[in-house]
Amino acid sequence: MSKLIYLDNSATTYPKPEDVYKFMDSFYRTHGVNPGRSGFDAALEAEEIVMNTRKLLTDFFNAGGEPDRLTFSYNASDSLNMIIQGLAMKGDHVITTMLEHNSVLRPLHHLELNGVVNLTHVMFDEKGYINPDDVKKAIRKNTKMAVINHCSNVIGTIQPIAEIGKICKEAGILFVVDSTQSAGTIPIDMQVMGIDVIVFTGHKCLMGPTGIGGSYVMKGVPVKYTRFGGTGVRSAQETHLEEFPYRLECGTLNLVGVAGLNAGVKWILSNRMESLHNKEMMLWNKLRKGIQNIENVITYCAYSDENHNPILCFNVKGFEAGDVGTMLDVDYNIACRTGLHCAPKVHIGLGTDKIHGTVRFSVGPFNTEEHIDKAIEAVEEIAALRK
After folding, report:
1. pLDDT at 237 over 90
2. Are 293 and 272 in contact, with CB atoms under 8 Å apart?
3. Looking at domain 5-16+272-384, what is its CATH homologous superfamily?
């Protein structure tokens, strides 16, 4: 692993900051009890880190100062299921895009199959961006919400969320944003951007561990609960609790995950998110230009570093994406992602669905120029095999 060139940070950032590893270990050894369930000191201190993390993320997203409305889950997919199913009602129309991950597409598709909602999928342009006017044109009288990702996990394009949020506010529809690929690398201001619900995961740009994610629901958003269970509060009540955070949480939290997320966010803040992003984009530009100079290699929606995250998708002509990924792994010890990347409609838009997707390199904060040089050299050698 010490020689691994890891370029799969869009799946999970790796490695994590040393601060995250150390804090998770020390905290769980001393406070690995059940938060919010008992009155002894260790339990109260465990609950304190949970509340501290709620406050930390509420401020991080400039959500408006009610940390109880920041709830935790397994990951973004888990929260998106709860939010989408908790908001959609019979007869609603929902707007989403062709850029979405299956964590949005599948819950919405199942609701459509069951006759609950009607869907509109807004197409992206040739550079990979959603035109806010297309969202506006898609709004109907029965439109309930728009569910849109901030950044594509396939092509890395950052969408004009503030403009779309303004349109949603003017039309009186809810705006749900999937920040899986952006939270921790791109500033998010829920109030300025007009976001009603933000969904996040911990194990990507927020530098936390796997198995932790969540959402923030603005006041007045009528999300109903779809899960029921223990909360540690008012146990005699037969129905699940209405108030946040219990409304979207039940059972014992992933305490060590919350601790790791806490440490990850603090690491980002201490190292300045803008500086981290600038370094990653410098490496991405080097990678992009190097890959684009290789004969028989095609890249997708990689024209500029403006409104972009460090994700690069490409194909080598004459090779299946999966075969390129295998060669990169076996022959060069380079880890990347191949295929449809859990976002099949993006590939329909790109025309790569019929060739089984693309190869994806995604840069993280611990990549180096040496990693990028070796990745470019590897792709060049693979492409030369078809000459």
Report:
1. no
2. no
3. Aspartate Aminotransferase, domain 1 (3.90.1150.10)
